[in-house]
Amino acid sequence: MRLECSRSYACVSSIPLAMTRIGAGEPLLLIHPLGADRSVWDPVLGNLSVDHDCVAVDMPGFGDSPELPVDVRATPTAIAASAVATLDALGLDSAHIAGISLGGWVALELGKTGRARSVQQSAPPASGAAHSDRAATPSAAQPARCRRYCR
Question: How far is Cα 75 from Cα 94, in angstroms, rounded to an integer?
Answer without folding.
Answer: 21
